[in-house]
Structure formats: C-alpha cells, structure tokens
Write a structure and sequence with these properties.
This protein is mainly α. It has 2 domains: about 1-70, no CATH class; about 85-165. It has helices spanning about 1-50, 60-80, 85-90, 100-130, 135-160. Helix 4 (about 100-130) runs antiparallel to helix 5. The longest helix is centred in the N-terminal third of the chain and has 47 residues, at about 1-50. The protein is globular and about 70 Å long.
C-alpha cells in the first residue's frame, strides 16, 4: 500500500508542477498582453484618435481598442501555447473535424467572459482594498487575484479537459 501511496503522491506532485508551469505560461502571455495593451493605448491616444476634437473621448476609444487587441492577443497565445495540448485533443476529436470558426468562436466567447469576470473582480477588489491600504498595492493584489480567477476559469471552462468516451 505504501508503494501505491508513494506513486500517487509522485503523480500528484508532477501534476501540480505541470499546472504551475501552465500558470507561468499564462503569466507570460498576460505580460505580453500588457505590452500590447499599453502600446495600442499609446498609439490610439496619440495618433489614431488624435483628430477627435473632443479630447475627453480619446482615452475611452483608445482604451477600448487596446483592451480588444490585447484580449485577441492573449486568447491567441493562450490557445496556441498555454493550453495547446488540450486544443490539439479537441481538434483530434472526430466529432469536431474540421475545427471551424464555430468552435474557435465559442472558445473566444468563453475567454472574453472569463476575462470580463476577472476585470470586474480586479475593479471591485481594488476599490475595497484601497480603503485600508495604498491604492497601488491594492491594485497589485487585485490583479494577482484576478489573474488566478482568469486562469482557473479558462483552465476549467474555456480550455477544459475533454474526457475520452
């Protein structure tokens, strides 16, 4: 029984390491999305929407574009890299061959929904925590909490494991 228990512990340890590794990939993708977001925000604000006379609208349009482009960037890289093993299994499923825009569109919709929840969580947590600490520290804590929420939602829902029947 001890040998079996030791094997189980080893398997659980390896699975935990793999999940942490996946989370690191998710974090790297998120960091690239932050760079994309900031770049598009700057270009939109300074150049693309510069001709808008009502300058107060510029940040709203630039931010909407930046978030949209960063979301597409993050979805693409998470699909191709972070959860590529699960996407390959889904694509190999005979029932879904060929993988069409419907499947990718459904995944993207789930990804956007999960990201929207995480953004809302970040917003609310930042406001709640900033009453008792510096708003920047509160925001960092909220970003970390939201990233865990986003990871879990995408890991368990958007790119969930598909069981073999």
């Amino acid at each position: 029984m001890n040998g079996h228990s030791l094997v189980q512990r080893a398997v659980l340890s390896v699975l935990g390491w793999i999940e942490r590794y996946r989370y690191l990939k998710f974090g790297i993708v998120g960091a690239s999305g932050t760079v994309v977001n900031l770049t598009v925000l700057y270009l939109g604000h300074e150049y693309l929407f510069n001709a808008i006379e009502a300058s107060y609208k510029r940040p709203y349009l630039s931010l909407a574009l930046a978030i949209s482009v960063a979301t597409v960037n993050n979805f693409t890289w998470n699909r191709l890299w972070t959860w590529s093993d699960r996407v390959r299994i889904l694509e190999a499923d005979e029932q879904l061959q060929p993988v069409g825009l419907r499947v990718v569109g459904m995944e993207f919709g789930q990804y956007v929904t999960a990201s929207a929840f995480g953004s809302g969580l970040q917003y609310v947590l930042t406001l709640l925590l900033s009453g008792s600490m510096d708003y920047r520290v509160a925001n960092i804590i909220a970003i970390l909490a939201a990233s865990v929420s986003n990871f879990l939602a995408n890991d368990r829902w958007t790119f969930k494991r598909h069981k073999k029947e």
